[in-house]
Amino acid sequence: MNNSSTSTIPQENATTAIRVFGGISYALLSTMSILMNTLLISVLFYGHYQFRRLAFFTLAWQMVFCDLMTQSVQLIVAVPVTLMGQAIYGHPTWYYVILFVDTFAYNATLHFSALMTLNRLCVFFAPRLNTILFSPKNITLTVGALWLYVLGFCSCYNWIGCKKAFSETGFFMYHDCPERLSTFGIIFRSISFHLSTYLPVLMLIAYLATFVYIRFFFGRQNRVRATTIQSSIRSLARDKEEERIQKARRQREKNFLVQ
């Protein structure tokens, strides 16, 4: 998602070679993404009964749906407009609705990725929060709440007067906003920019922290626990062996006395 203004858009039309190369590149990448998601869908269907109670499984479905929305917009808008180098659709209402779907899908992907990261963190660091947010009973509520939040968040773009557009000369999507935004509009665009920039960084840090914990601490705890259990088993075995020896000795003494 690009927050560029109209002043940053190239004014000259690209050459035919650039347009063809750009359009074919968009088409190939989008087609490959759709094929990979189709393969993932088949895997998710295959493991439905085995993994349906896992939060990760539910979140994976949401992200597949988001990516399919994004790639569909690319094939409908970006590819043909890039190849032709002009606004072949004009600017009807349905055109902006489709571009709004791109904004919605982008933000949904971003936030569901963050939610999946939070799920991985909670499994190891906050089991109680993991139960509250990601248990089989609550995961549907969590996912539904996030969808509503993303819809409201994206609707704010239209509220402040920003429309999603696709540049026929620069070949990228951007938000065309009024030159003078309201105070709320300025704050909202700042929040949107910082979310897009820093939320992926936070997710990367979270995954690194999880990796370090699993690599250096989680395994060590299991090894210490296993060593403790093994020591207890050996100690118990020694005690039983000594008890058996003592019992056999007493039996021999008793037999000797009886004789």
Automatic annotation (TrEMBL):
CDD domains linked: 7tm_classA_rhodopsin-like
Transmembrane regions: 20-47, 59-81, 93-118, 139-160, 198-218
Localisation: Membrane
Domain G-protein coupled receptors family 1 profile: 36-259
InterPro entries membership: 7TM_GPCR_serpentine_rcpt_Srx, GPCR_Rhodpsn_7TM
Gene3D superfamilies linked: Rhodopsin 7-helix transmembrane proteins
Superkingdom of this protein's organism: Eukaryota
GO cellular component, one term: membrane
Pfam families: 7TM_GPCR_Srx
Keywords recorded for this protein, A-Z: Membrane, Transmembrane, Transmembrane helix
PANTHER family (alphabetical): G-PROTEIN COUPLED RECEPTORS FAMILY 1 PROFILE DOMAIN-CONTAINING PROTEIN (PTHR22718:SF25), SERPENTINE RECEPTOR, CLASS X (PTHR22718)
Protein name per its UniProtKB record: G-protein coupled receptors family 1 profile domain-containing protein
Species whose genome carries this gene: Meloidogyne incognita (Southern root-knot nematode worm)
